[in-house]
């Protein structure tokens, strides 16, 4: 997968709502679960998308106490089925992320990347060059492990 295509997030929300009615925060948590904790959509993407989906008639909302709860309409179910392949593609990406975190030390790598991104602006040229060479070695090793299949397959050893 070359990344999440623009607009695909709305179908992911429809998928999450196909599991049952949910409030916005619950949707954010469920998406986070689907991506193994590596991605949590912000309120700035979730709520405008929910509003769009409601305007299109794909979801409806109702008040339950202080929260607005969203549910899938029959039209939303139809649209979800039309875009099932896109949803399956993004869910496969999520499963891959989750497995990466759980089995392959992904959370350590993510932690190091966060640290790296904050430290790069303060590194001297020598340290940046050492880092560049380390990244090149890492990428070469990953490419070797994955093989020439463009990141697919690669065996199970």
Walk me through this protein's architecture.
The protein is mainly alpha-helical. The chain folds into two domains: about 10-100, Winged helix-like DNA-binding domain superfamily/Winged helix DNA-binding domain (Arc Repressor Mutant, subunit A); about 105-145. The chain has helices at about 10-20, 25-35, 45-55, 75-80, 85-105, 105-120, 125-145; strands at about 20-25, 60-65, 65-70. It has a three-stranded antiparallel sheet. Strand 2 (about 60-65) and strand 3 (about 65-70) form a beta hairpin. It is elongated. The two termini are about 25 Å apart. Residues about 150-155 have low confidence and may be disordered.
Care to give the gist of this entry?
This protein has helices at residues 8-18, 24-34, 43-55, 74-82, 84-103, 106-119, 125-146; strands at residues 22-23, 59-64, 67-72.
List strands and helices in order, with pairings.
Layout: H1 8-18, E1 22-23, H2 24-34, H3 43-55, E2 59-64, E3 67-72, H4 74-82, H5 84-103, H6 106-119, H7 125-146
Antiparallel strand pairs: 1-3, 2-3
Helix pairs in contact: 1-4, 1-5, 2-3
Q: Which features characterize this protein?
A:
disordered C terminus; 3-stranded antiparallel β-sheet; 3 strands; 64% helix; Arc Repressor Mutant, subunit A; single chain; 157 residues; 2 domains; mainly alpha
Which CATH class of the largest domain? Mainly Alpha
Tell me the CATH superfamily of the largest domain. Winged helix-like DNA-binding domain superfamily/Winged helix DNA-binding domain
- The helix/strand series, from N terminus to C terminus, equals HEHHEEHHHH
Largest sheet: 3 strands, antiparallel
DSSP strand (E) fraction?
5-15%
Counting DSSP E segments of at least 2 residues, the number of strands comes to 3
| Structural class determined from secondary elements | mainly alpha
Strand order of the largest sheet: 1-3-2
| Number of helical stretches of at least 4 residues | 7
Topology-level CATH name of the largest domain = Arc Repressor Mutant, subunit A
- C-alpha end-to-end distance: 23 Å
Low-confidence parts = 151-157
Mean of all residue-level pLDDT scores: 87
Shape call? elongated
Helix content: 55-70%
Round the Cα radius of gyration to an integer and report it.
20 Å
Number of domains: 2
Which CATH-level-2 architecture of the largest domain?
Orthogonal Bundle
């Amino acid at each position: 997968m070359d990344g999440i295509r623009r607009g695909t997030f709305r179908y992911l929300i429809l998928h999450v709502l196909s599991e049952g009615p949910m409030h916005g925060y619950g949707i954010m948590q469920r998406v986070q679960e689907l991506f193994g904790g590596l991605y949590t959509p912000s309120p700035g993407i979730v709520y405008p998308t929910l509003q769009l989906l409601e305007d299109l008639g794909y979801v409806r909302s109702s008040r339950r106490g202080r929260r607005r709860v969203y549910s899938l309409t029959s039209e939303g179910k139809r649209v979800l089925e039309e875009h099932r392949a896109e949803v399956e593609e993004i869910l496969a990406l999520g499963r891959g992320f989750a497995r990466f975190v759980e089995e392959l030390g992904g959370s350590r790598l993510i932690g190091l990347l966060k640290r790296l991104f904050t430290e790069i602006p303060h590194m001297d040229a020598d340290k940046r060059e050492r880092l560049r060479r380390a990244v090149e070695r890492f990428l070469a090793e990953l490419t070797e492990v994955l093989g020439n299949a463009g990141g697919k397959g690669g065996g199970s050893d």
